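S.,

As promised, the LAXINWYW run. Input:
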Amino acid sequence: MTVSILSRFAAHGGRQLVARHTSRATGTEMTFAIFLPPQADSGPCPVVWYLSGLTCTHANVMEKGEYRKAAAEAGLIVVCPDTSPRGEGVADDEAYDLGQGAGFYVDATQKPWATHFRMKTYIEVELPEVVAANFPVDLDRQGIFGHSMGGHGALTIALRNPSRFRSLSAFAPIVAPSQVPWGQKAFPAYIGPDPAKWRRHDAVALIEDGARFPEILVDQGEADTFLADQLKPELLARACSDAGIGLTLRMQPGYDHSYYFISTFMPDHIAWHARRLAA
Ligand SMILES: N[C@@H](CCC(=O)N[C@@H](CSC=O)C(=O)NCC(=O)O)C(=O)O
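Predicted complex:
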């Protein structure tokens, strides 16, 4: 459960750290970023988990997501994990949307991925234990959010574990991976060809199958080049409407899929979580 601190910077009265530890879930070293607001010097703080998208490490949102000012003001700890196991002995693919950097937050059952690609267990079980053992987090007050593949991760993890999280939001999430090319490529590779096995890893399918979360915030850029083919927020809107889930879906004119979009709406997402994680 010990972590090595790789870097430490003062920011907004708090501290931005990068930590590394040996993961029993993935069997590799795993790196995550953690922001501790000034309030963490005085006692446990609520924690928000941010899951990143395809090609990302912990560093993309840390460097471009601009979450620290709002998180410091709200007293939120923000944890930003990597998107997959990595290293020389870890399976990979030449494409950007499979293998290292593209873990899809599932536990792979198929060769060659099953050996290390266990991001579901890592995020759902191991990382909370590691963070709680080393940092002043209040695990009774947890929220989760993410971007694109990480939005898919946030939605599916919260829908499968609604009692763990008090708040959920996403930027441009993949809402129905079973119905779009990214998921239709990754899911057979990681969890096999049977679409029935994909449903526990698909937010729209989870809702159709009875999973519930009280309310969800989603921001989606209208100029996002992945919108029509890969993201399809209308599928989440329909599923939430049918299920009585309170979805706030904000279509944002002019915004694309990048961290310029994410950083623009990051303060709104931090505020969404802070309101629901207040004591
Ligand atoms: N064509 C790009 C695709 C990679 C990309 O756009 N990745 C996004 C997430 S997409 C869904 O999960 C991202 O967050 N990129 C990192 C960034 O800092 O912008 C490529 O080939 O890289």
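The longest helix spans residues 259-277. Residues 53-56, 60, 64, 96, 147-149, 257-259 surround LAXINWYW (CB under 6 Å).

- D.
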